[in-house]
Amino acid sequence: MAAAPLAVFKLWLDDYVRREGAFEVQAAANHAVGLAERRLGMTIDELDKVAARGVASCRNDHLEVLRSANFSASPVKEFSIIGPDGRTLCSDLGAAPGERAVVASGPIAGRADAALELVQVGSRQERFLRLRRPTITGANVLAALLPPDLLLTPISAAGGPVLSQTQMRLAGGAIVGEAGPAALPTESFVASARSERFGLSVMVLLPRSVKFRQHQDLESIGYMIAGAMALLLFGFAALRPRRTRDNPVVEIEKALKAGEFVPYYQPVIDITTARIRGAEVLMRWRKPDGTIIPPGHFIPLAESSGLIAEMMRHLMRAVRDEMGDAVIDRPFLRFGFNLSACHFRDDSIVADVREIFEGSTIRLAQLVLELTERHPLDNLTSARRVIAALQGLGVKVAIDDVGAGHSGLSYILKLGVDIIKIDKIFIDALGHDSNSTTIIETLMDLARNLRMDVIAEGVENFEQVVALRERGIRAAQGYVFAPPLPGSAFLQLIEATDPVASVQEATLPARRPLALPLAPPLGPRAA
Ligand code: C2E
Ligand code: CA
Ligand code: CA
Q: How many angstroms separate the most distant Cα atoms in the chain?
């Protein structure tokens, strides 16, 4: 892990140097073309001025004009008059110039009368650029010679020696001139630019090694920083065991190992017979000091950390072990568990349920797995498959908090569940709000048509019980009957309301008259 910052820095430096190198050679090529265009442009303007003054021969007054033109046009080596046969008749210097051999020539955009040539001068065969245009009177031609060096003044961005190589060519490919080191390694940054007006192109090459050398200081600073980061990472790694002590996920993990997550049971009541049909299992964190933490404080973190799966297995085993004996004579009791969205992503919950309950006194048909409508599922297809697989085992599947989420009826229909649990919001509004009442009635119709059971949640008073019964709802849970109870209290409650000696089938009339509430709230209601 410590090597990672170094590797990342190396990658960054490579990329930085590559981008900087590419940018630098392109800028140099553009600069050279711009410079050549300006200097050639100035020179052709000067030739036009000379022509306009009627210079057409080697007469002294004409040579005088050529001399003053050379004085003002700085990049020009000489102005000259060329005869019809191509020989240079005279230059502004007066003396008859030596041999000038034309190597290549090209047109100038927008100037049909003018041309740009590459010429070799004298016995040393030095190469020059030559601009030419006709005189206005005779067959002679006015010309200006420019040393390519003046167009290729190589500059170094860093101010030191020029390390890039610049090459200028005419349109036909003839080399006008070169600047910078002659031999270059093959590993170079390359860029080119072109003057459309003069048909010139410039290519710039810069060795990669040069750029890397230029960034040696950056490289050493970078390696220092990366090294420091590596050390910091080591430091964090060494500190890790101490830091994780306050990490809430680690706390949950430890509590799970210590068996601190326990089931509480909220009875689900048949409101037509006042008998207990079963319970919803609600998780509690019972700390060693006896503090009870409600699920809202740890379930979200358990879900995001992935610990929820193991916690649910633990909770199911605890219910199996705690309720196993009581259900032997009460096979109608059902236990509902709250699942999370992650349980519907793959089949592992199906395997877990089977592994935990198969062969236990709690049959798979006594289990209800609740899926909340509050948080949307990320994959309906896989959820549908998991639900079908659970139903294949005989397990019932319920949609929880119906009406509290956003998905509505289509969700319920698509998932093919067995039970719908109507959210407390609608129960609270029963009788006061006609919309809620209508929705409950619609849900009841839907449930009847799809042969689904309905459970009302969060029932807190008798008026609500009466209103639910009037609408044909049989099952309900809420504080009016009992809050979520610890296992021992729930067992006492079922023993008191359905003593084993006189246990009847759930469908038979209740032995006890309907006397609600069934259990006084034990301690704080949220417990
Ligand atoms: P839920 O499944 O909707 O559970 C019903 C909640 O309403 C419970 O809160 C219960 O104590 C509370 N309740 C019951 N009757 C009444 C009532 O008459 N009035 C009012 N105001 N509230 C009532 P709890 O136990 O705090 O659970 C909150 C939520 O935590 C649950 O909502 C469920 O979504 C989640 N949860 C609880 N246990 C588990 C679990 O084992 N696994 C997962 N994944 N989630 C769980
Ligand atoms: Ca629930
Ligand atoms: Ca609920």
A: 142
Distance from the CA of 483 to the center of ligand 3, in angstroms?
13
For ligand 1, which residues put their CB under 6 angstroms from it? Answer: 266, 282-283, 294-296, 299, 308, 315, 338-340, 372, 400-401, 458-460, 477-479, 484
pLDDT given at position 525: 43
Residue 402: nearest ligand to its CA? 3
Task: Tell whether 110 is covered by a domain.
Answer: yes
Which atom of ligand 1 has the smallest separation from the CA of 266? Answer: 14
Pocket of ligand 1, candidates 262, 282, 303, 419: which has the most ligand atoms within 8 Å of its Cβ, to mutate? 282
C-alpha to C-alpha distances, 290 to 260, 287, 491, nearest whole angstrom? 10, 5, 20
**Two tokens, residue 490:** 């729930």
Do residues 264 and 409 share a domain? yes
Ligand nearest to the CA of 281: 1
Question: Rounded CA gap, 484 and 494, in Å?
Answer: 14
Q: For residue 521, which ligand has an atom nearest its CA?
A: 1
Nearest CA to ligand 1 atom 46: 338
What is the Å distance from ligand 1's center to 255 Cα?
A: 20
The pLDDT assigned to 62 comes to: 92
Q: How far does residue 338's CA lie from ligand 2's centre (Å)?
A: 5
525 CA closest ligand 1 atom index:
11
Same domain for 31 and 172, yes or no, is yes
Amino acid at 391: Q
Question: Given this model, what pLDDT does residue 442 score?
Answer: 84
Q: 282 with 177, same domain?
A: no
Residues 172 and 267 reside in one and the same domain: no
pLDDT digits 0-9 by tens, 223-257? 666 666 666 666 555 555 544 456 899 999 999 99
Cα–Cα dist 197/191, whole Å: 19
Of all protein residues, the one whose alpha carbon is nearest to atom 7 of ligand 1 is 458
Residue nearest to atom 25 of ligand 1 (CA): 282
Which atom of ligand 1 approaches the CA of 477 most closely? Answer: 15
Query: Based on the domain organization, do 301 and 440 belong to the same domain?
Result: yes
Show the DSSP H helices in 258-401 as ranges. Answer: 299-305, 308-328, 348-357, 380-392
Report the predicted TM-score, pTM, of the whole model to 2 decimal places: 0.57
In a domain, 251, yes or no: no
H/E stretch holding 115 reads strand 111-121
- Under a CB-based contact definition with an 8 Å cutoff, are residues 146 and 139 in contact? no
In a domain, 69, yes or no: yes
| Nearest atom, ligand 1, residue 264 CA | 25
Nearest ligand for residue 267 CA = 1
Give the least confident one: 78-82, 88-92, 239-243.
Answer: 239-243
Query: Which structural domain, as residue segments, surrounds residue 331?
Result: 260-500+512-519
204, 224: one domain: no
Taking each helix axis as running N to C, give the angle between helix 408-415 and helix 434-449, from 0 to 180 degrees, rounded to the nearest 10. Answer: 20
39 and 97 share one domain: yes
Domain count, the chain: 3
- pLDDT tens profile 180-221: 877 666 678 888 889 999 999 988 888 887 776 766 666 666
- Are 402 and 373 in contact, with CB atoms under 8 Å apart? yes
Pair (367, 493) in one structural domain: yes
